[in-house]
Design a protein that fits this description.
The chain is built from one helix and four strands; from the N terminus they run E-E-E-E-H. It is α+β, with helices and mostly antiparallel strands. It has a domain at 18-54. The longest helix is centred in the last third of the chain and has 12 residues, at 43-54. Pfam families: DUF397.
């Protein structure tokens, strides 16, 4: 299931990101163009990225 970022949807709506967990991978895509492709990351790398962004 794709989840839209809580940061998406600002006034310009220019940066819209969705994330989905699929087993040991995390997919990231542009919510305005979902058919344009997906970037896939190992779940552990994604978790590390999120932790660093939160600090």
């Amino acid at each position: 299931m794709w989840r839209k970022s809580s940061r998406s949807g600002g006034a310009s709506n220019a940066n819209c990101v969705e994330v989905a967990v699929a087993g040991s991978a995390v997919g990231v895509r542009d919510s305005k163009s979902p058919g344009a492709g997906v970037l896939a990351f190992p779940a552990a790398r994604w978790a590390s990225f999120v932790r660093r962004m939160a600090s």
